[in-house]
Amino acid sequence: MKNLLCALALLLAANSAAHAQNAWTDHARALPDKLRQVPVGLTLWHTPNPNYPEPDPAQPGRFVWKHSTMVRNEVGEPLQVVECGSFIWYSAAGWQANLTQTPAEFATLFGCPRGQLRPGQVYTFAKNYRYAQNAASLYGGDALWYILARDAAGKLYKGFGLIETEAAVR
Fold this sequence. Notes:
The chain is α+β, with helices and mostly antiparallel strands. It has helices spanning about 1-20, 105-110, and strands at about 40-45, 55, 65, 70-75, 80-90, 95-100, 115, 120-125, 130, 140-150, 155-165.
């Protein structure tokens, strides 16, 4: 009986982990599930885009994709960041959960005190870089960055922006 319970617990944990990785269940829709049906209130963009790797002068043999990510509150009232993160698309599986940042991490990375987005203000993650250990590990793919934020009444808004990261060094 104990072995059966252990096996059941492992099966449930594996199923839960697989479900957590499946960020995009409706392939007839463009956005991952988390972002659907949330109104847009933020503008989010990346530059340069598309983005190409270049040799990393600080780490010979390594490569870096250098880009910045910006966000602006378009709602007209302050918004409090709830979550920031990204999904990646690098295979036929489509959108996969990549990373999630807390409001405190967002505040530090984007230079946004307390994670409060003032209307019309642009906040910038200046060194939103991606790295490769060597030339063999260069790969292209797309990343869909998103930010979720709430107004004082609790209404949730989103902003999202796609960055194309290419594999070829220019």
